[in-house]
C-alpha cells in the first residue's frame, strides 16, 4: 500500500478504537494492525528521507563545482 493509503487505514483504525463498544480483543488486534501499518509508514518516510539527502548532497556538490567563483 502507498503511504497515503496507509495513513487513511490508520485513520480508520483510530476511529474504530474510539468505539466504546469495542471488546478488548478487538482493540488489541486493531492496535497491533495499526502498529504494523505505522512501521510501514516510517519505513517509507525513511526511504524518502534518504533519497532527499542524496539529492541535496548531489546538488550541493554541483553548486560547489560550478559556482565556486572565488
Write a structural description:
The protein has 70 residues and is mainly α. It has a single domain, classed as Helix Hairpins (Orthogonal Bundle), CATH 1.10.287. It is 84% helix and 0% strand. The protein contains two helices and no strands. The protein is rod-shaped, with a radius of gyration of 21 Å. The chain starts with a helix and ends with a helix. The mean pLDDT is 93.
Just name the CATH architecture: Orthogonal Bundle
Low-confidence parts, pLDDT < 50 over ≥5 residues? none
How much is the average pLDDT?
Answer: 93
- Structurally, the number of domains stands at 1
Biggest pleated-sheet summary: none
Number of strands: 0
Broad shape: rod-shaped
N-to-C CA distance: 49 Å
At the third CATH level, what is the topology name?
Helix Hairpins
| CA radius of gyration | 21 Å
Give, in order, the helices and strands. Answer: HH
Amino acid at each position: 500500500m502507498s503511504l497515503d493509503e496507509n495513513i487513511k487505514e490508520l485513520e480508520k483504525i483510530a476511529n474504530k478504537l474510539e468505539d466504546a463498544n469495542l471488546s478488548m480483543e478487538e482493540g488489541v488486534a486493531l492496535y497491533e494492525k495499526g502498529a504494523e501499518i505505522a512501521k510501514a509508514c516510517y519505513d517509507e518516510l525513511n526511504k524518502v528521507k534518504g533519497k532527499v539527502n542524496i539529492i541535496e548532497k548531489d546538488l550541493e556538490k554541483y553548486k560547489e563545482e560550478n559556482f565556486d567563483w572565488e
